[in-house]
Design brief:
The protein has helices spanning about 75-90, 110-130, 130-145, 155-160, 195-205, 210-230, 235-250, 255-265, 290-295, and strands at about 20-30, 40-55, 60-65, 70, 95-100, 160-165, 170-175, 185, 270-275, 285. By secondary structure, it is α+β, with helices and mostly antiparallel strands. The strands form 2 sheets. Strands 1, 2, 3, 4, 5, 6 and 7 form a 7-stranded mixed sheet that branches. Strands 8-10-9 form a 3-stranded antiparallel sheet. It starts with 18 loop residues before the first strand and ends with a helix. Bound molecules: (3R)-3-hydroxy-3-methyl-5-(phosphonooxy)pentanoic acid.
Amino acid sequence: MPAVSPTPPDLRVPSSDTSTGFGHAKLILLGEHAVVYGQPALAAGIAAGVRCHVNPGQGNIRAPAWQMDVQVGDGAMVSQAVERLCERLGVPAKELDFWLEAEIPARAGLGSSAAMAVAIGQAVAARTGALPADVLAAATAAETVFHATPSGIDTAAALRGGVGRFDRATGWQPLPLHQPLDLCVGVSKQVRQTSDLVTGVARLCERVPVARRLIETLGQVACAGMEALASGDVEALAQEFNLAHGLLCGLGVSTRELDELVRAARTAGALGAKLTGAGGGGAVIALAQDRGEDVLK
Ligand code: PMV
């Protein structure tokens, strides 16, 4: 007799016992990589992100948009992250099901793993009464599965949303926006692992100590960008984007495809453009102001 596989539960059917959470996708405007070394960074949690619905269940974790279907205990990175997160929040992950609605691509430099962790953390917190600080700590612990040494910027932006300054010592400080920023995002076809890029930068700094100066300069560029933002000087902010991209190239985290996307954005009229996130693929951002359509093309 052929084996009959059990019909997987339909996690999409909400019940009175469903709890829901949301995590913002993030864009690092300035300071990626340097933030791992304690430098300040400028980031934004955007409106798009990941929503999670949690029900009592058997540890199923599904995200159709990412073709992801894993289970607590199967050893997949996502399963390990969810286990770690739930453990920190004091609930057994294998007694819950997780249904994820993702509005962003995975592993593209947009903070998908942090958005997922925060969405799950918020949904679990809605059941247990955990505080936002507990959710942040648990989501950052989950991030260690994907990142060697997460600075915490992705989870802070995913939880808080809006524009903020982040450093490891003081965390997230919201920054007011005096005018809307017309930012374009271009996603490359290259997927990559953040931990590989972070480790690559660490090795470079060990082998070539002068590379540490690039890290410090990236922090200074982030501070200059924050000043530009505070005074509403979009052109100066765009110049900082261009400088940061050059410095990130120096750290070896850009790729030919990212450089081409940056060049195409500038040629189409963007005031400034740079890679965002860990690099090695992923995404670029461009400050387009009134040239958004041309830049996106
Ligand atoms: O994983 P990404 O591409 O969102 O990048 C995270 C930003 C880094 O500064 C490279 C790492 C970190 O933990 O801050």
